[in-house]
Amino acid sequence: MTSAAASPVRVRFSPAPSGELHVGSARTALFNWFEARHIGGSFLLRIEDTDASRTREEWIDAIGDTLGWLGIDWDEPPVRQSTRADAYLAAAEQLLASGHAYETFETPEELEAINAERKEAKLPPGYDGRGRELTPEQRKALAAEGRPRTIRFRTPDTGTSSFVDLVRGPVSVEWATISDFVIVRSDGKPLFFLANAVDDIAMGITHVIRGEDLLDTTHRVLALRAALGDTEPPEYAHLPLILRADRAKLSKRHGAVAVEDFRARGILPEALLNYLALLGWSPGDDREVMTRDEIVASFSLEHVTKSAAVFDEKKLEWMNGEWIRRLDRGELAARVRPLMIERYGAGVTEDLLDEVVAIAQERATTLVSIVEQSDFLFVTEENFSIDDDAWQRVVNAERGRDVLNAAIAHVEKCDWTVDAIDLRPAISDLGMKPGKVMFVLYAATEGRAAGLPVFDSIHLLGRERALGRLRAARERLA
RNA sequence: GCCCCCAUCGUCUAGUGGCCCAGGACGCCGCCCUUUCAAGGCGGUAACGGGGAUUCGAACUCCCCUGGGGGCACCA
Question: Cα separations (Å) of A74 from A64, A67, A234?
Fold first, then answer.
């Protein structure tokens, strides 16, 4: 037995590049990374692109970008499985030679027939092992017919496969329920199980941390490793799945599931990382808003939960608001700037950006909400409009016209500072409670009944534009 | 159909036999503050799926049921 110091922890995140990075995958990546950084081990990246038909180059780059955005770094150059076919095929040959695997020659139609039979017999889909005892001559003859050749791993007929999962404890299954599975396809390409086993051995992976959807495959991979001569299998930790609100699996068909979707919506990486860390893990105390470093310091697979977790976007947004408040103003401005420029173009000056951020930071929940709330500053006067609900409230207000008149009179002659613009005294003079009628001013100047603090907004708008909008509202009301 | 995993407030979770007639957070509701509100403060609502067993004592252990999820293919 080697000591812990002699065998440092090595974990890997191994996405299949068949789309944008899903939050579930991101969570898996995060937990691996947390474990590595907590222990001081290595975090590696492996691109599982053995299935060329599902792989797209741009997804590979996109995954790297997304991980980078989250602040995840990796310690060695990523391994591309598509470049390692020789190693997998060599392993397959080794298994063939040792009798752990064998060649079969069924056509797709024949396999379908086998599955139909098995279904009839109430057996799980799979293979019936009919090719196991073919003689070399028979195999040669079958191949000569031009039949597809695959390589299958011979699973035990009896006995039990078991391993101890770091989060679930002992897990076992009867071998009789697992049929011989394909490790090399008829097109000569290796399959997941083989590539996985070979690479985990080659990369010296010590801890496999992945989603619970892969729990059952562990028995196969372990058998494969043993057949390949491996004597030091890694530890396995299967993370609970992330579910939608209706407890169905989180999928791309319903709402945002890609990390990039949340990024586009103005979720901060700090917040998403923090939220994801708490889906299936807790520090064991009451802390919730935690920095990456705090999470790394406290992380332990022992505190990983066993049951599936529902992804709660409301809580994510709350947490995002917490993070928006924690950033210093300059940093927040830097995060908002690109979104502002994308949306409003050159009109976004540094001064304006800085002021918008200053007044929005206290209440915002997403970056995008800050951008949206400041739209009234960038719209031209011709295009400025008040949304229908807000206007209806103004129309229904008892003394909307009086409020507008008072505001106009004040704004016409007051000093141009936020403090001087304060319209509360003018409204109080009318005998009204400012808080009750302020929405009239929000509607007139910002176009909606609620938004960024209105005195600051008027200040930002400038006297002429603000007066123009207030007067326009007064006229429209007449 | 077969196999595997899971089960505390609506949601994320704390809880590892007495500290629990179950704690925190989000959400929701109410009140307060207030320049609207998506912010802040205070308070409230709300859970151990059911049944057995073990024990002086069970949310915590065991069994059964129920429920939820996952896997099984030449996807990963």
Answer: 10, 9, 20
Strand B proximity: list residues 72-101 of A with CB under 7 Å: none
Residue A369, CB, strand B, below 7 Å: yes
Do A392 and A440 meet the contact criterion of CB atoms below 8 Å apart? no
Angle at A365 between CA A362 and CA A371, to 5 degrees: 90
Q: Which helix (H) or strand (E) holds A31?
A: helix A23-39
What is the Cα–Cα distance from A233 to A205, expressed in whole angstroms?
9
pTM higher than 0.90, yes or no? yes
Query: Smallest CA–C1' separation from A214: which nucleotide?
Result: B71
A249 is catalytic: no
Q: Residue-wise pLDDT tens for chain A (478 aa)?
A: 444 444 599 999 999 998 899 999 999 999 999 999 999 999 999 999 987 777 788 889 999 999 999 999 999 999 999 999 999 999 999 999 999 999 999 999 999 999 999 998 888 999 999 999 999 999 999 999 999 999 999 999 999 999 999 999 999 999 999 999 999 999 999 999 999 999 999 999 999 999 999 999 999 999 999 999 999 999 999 999 999 888 877 765 556 689 999 999 999 999 999 999 999 999 999 999 999 999 999 999 999 999 999 999 999 999 999 999 999 999 999 999 999 999 998 889 999 999 999 999 999 999 999 999 999 999 999 999 999 989 999 998 888 999 999 999 999 999 999 999 999 999 999 988 899 899 999 999 999 999 999 999 999 999 999 999 999 999 998 8
Rounded Cα distance between A155 and A177, Å, is 10
Q: Which of A119, A249, A252, A315 is catalytic?
A: A252
B18 C1' to A27 CA distance, Å: 38
The CA distance from A144 to A452, in Å, is 77
Tell me the C-alpha distance between A250 and A378, whole Å. Answer: 38
A364 touches strand B (CB under 7 A): yes
Q: Which residue is nearest to nucleotide B8 (CA to C1')?
A: A307
CB proximity A343–strand B (7 Å threshold): no
On strand B, nucleotides with any atom < 7 Å from a protein CB are 1-8, 10-16, 23-27, 34-40, 68-76
Whether any strand B atom is under 7 angstroms from the Cβ of A314: the reply reads yes
DSSP, res A53:
G
Look at residues A416, A342, A422 and name the one whose alpha carbon lies nearest to residue A375: A342
